[in-house]
Write a structure and sequence with these properties.
Strand order of the largest sheet: 1-2-4-3
CATH superfamily: NADH Oxidase
Distance between the termini: 40 Å
Shape: globular
Order of helices and strands: HHEHHEHHHEHEH
Structural class: alpha+beta
Strand content: 5-15%
Largest sheet: 4 strands, antiparallel
Length: about 210
């Protein structure tokens, strides 16, 4: 499917076909495509918990203000932004850069220092912003890829983050930017036209804000 068409046709679906399985091979394909998302310094600070089991979806629904789509969707993906990704991934990232010719060996310490300066300490607000921004890029890439694979999605911001962390044993210093419900549109449902979108001239400025 043409990527422009996919972006125009993607919608946030509230009504999923219940009981329809999302095969693991298709789910893995989706995640592998989403994993091609860009990230700052290629540090990829995202982690994902895939929730497919009915009991676990029920637990997640309780943390998500009882929204039915949590249980109706084939799977719900808990998007996790990990501020510790700098320390966790930087050496592997630099190894790859060096091996592929993006970086000379003598520049390794310089790049490592640059990353630390850019993103601050693991508990800093700067580091949290880094993790959330890049995980959001991953989530959007995933939703576009899902549409291209014949799946529907809905990004969810309505949930109790602490409840999810406790229920799914997520480290307290990680952040959950969103949940993404994934599945198939319920049979017989006709979507209403796309809702309000601002005109480009309302939010685009050229050269300066004022």
């Amino acid at each position: 499917m043409d990527v422009i068409h996919v972006i125009k046709e993607r919608r946030s679906i509230n009504f999923f076909e219940t009981g329809k399985e999302l095969p693991n091979n298709k789910l893995n394909e989706l995640l592998e495509i989403a994993n091609l998302s860009p990230s700052s310094f290629n540090l990829q600070p995202w982690k994902v918990i895939v929730v497919k089991d009915p009991e676990r979806k029920n637990a997640l629904r309780r943390c998500a203000f009882d929204q039915p789509k949590v249980e109706e969707a084939s799977a719900v993906l808990i998007m996790i932004a990990d501020p510790n990704a700098v320390e966790e991934n930087i050496d592997r990232m630099l190894d790859s850069w060096q091996e592929l010719g993006y970086m000379k060996p003598e520049m390794r310490d310089t790049y490592k220092g640059m990353a630390q300066n850019l993103y601050g300490s693991p508990d800093s607000m700067k580091r949290k912003f880094f993790a959330v921004k890049n995980t959001s890029l991953f989530a959007m890439n995933l939703m576009i890829a899902a549409k291209g694979l014949g799946l529907e999605t809905h990004p969810m911001d309505g949930f109790d983050e602490e409840c999810i962390k406790k229920e799914f044993k997520i480290p307290s210093d990680n952040i959950i930017p969103m949940l993404v419900a994934v599945g198939y549109l319920k049979s017989g449902i006709k979507l209403l036209p796309r809702a309000f979108r601002r005109k480009v001239e309302e939010f685009v400025k050229f050269e300066k804000y004022q």
